[in-house]
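Reviewers of the previous submission asked for a worked example of the structure-prediction workflow described in the proposal, so we include one complete record here. The input consisted solely of the amino acid sequence. No template or homolog information was supplied to the procedure at any stage.
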Amino acid sequence: MENRSNEVVAVNPTGTGADLVPSPSLQRAQEFARQSKAENTLRGYRGDWKDFCGWCGARELSPLPASPETVAGYIAECAGHLKVGSIQRRLNAIAEAHKAVGAESPTSVGMVRNVLKGIRRTMGTASVQKAAALTDDIRAMVSVTDSGLIGTRDRAMILLGFAGAFRRSELVGLNVEDCDFGKDGLTITLRRSKTDQDGAGRKIGIPYGSNPDTCPVRTVQGWMEQATITTGPLFRSITRHGRIRPGRLSGIDVARVVKKLATRAGLDATKYGGHSLRAGHATAAAIAGASERSIMKQTGHRSVQMVRRYIRDGSLFRENSAGKLGL
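From that input alone, the workflow returned the following structure tokens.
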């Protein structure tokens, strides 16, 4: 049986292509196609496609084009060790690979969709979410930061991430040029985000805090002054000797800082991560009575349903009907 898996991994956004050397115009088209999806998404697709090709190769099945029976058998086996969300992503990768070579995707066939539906009903779709870092948690984390430049940077990163409800990638993607300090606070120009791949950009306001020790505006300004950085990445790595490196931090670094400070503050670090800052903002603001519209404006969510997914259990007791029962 013809096996085109090697072709697929060569050219396409998902790692697919053909043996022929493409023309300059086709090369440009392919490059634009690659830019249609975030690099993290493409990286995940490449890994997923490689796994599918390996599975098919071990059974002498064709991955491209793949039959609905092949895909259905593959995801049924994946259900033994993967979560539903990961299985869905693998289906997306398979669909993208077929789309790239003009082949009909087997993932939309009723057989595959029914198998996936059965997996969802059997396994459930609830995801394990990181705990929301609420205001008291943030204060506790800030109080146990290191002395010197590392502590100043960590405080600025935690407070800005919380106040701005930033994703990890958004936080580490900020440059000094994106920060505009004014009398009302700090205006951040977010040039690109997960939901803004076209780079339209949006502005986010960070007001001054009432406590200088936890004020995100003063803390970020203090970090920039102490680090003497005037251009380029806002948050950077620092050597143990206190030398600031030119490159920016990664999203993993944000998670590591949150976990480090959570441990020092006596919190269960396994429940916290980089996303705890964003979820914490939404939850703490909801508990304090902020409108969903104002939370959406800060987080950048486009629908009420989406922002509600970020408001953790802390808001369950706000306007709870059980409290009106007189028990």
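DSSP finds 14 helices and five strands in the chain. We consider this example representative of the routine output the project will generate in years two and three.
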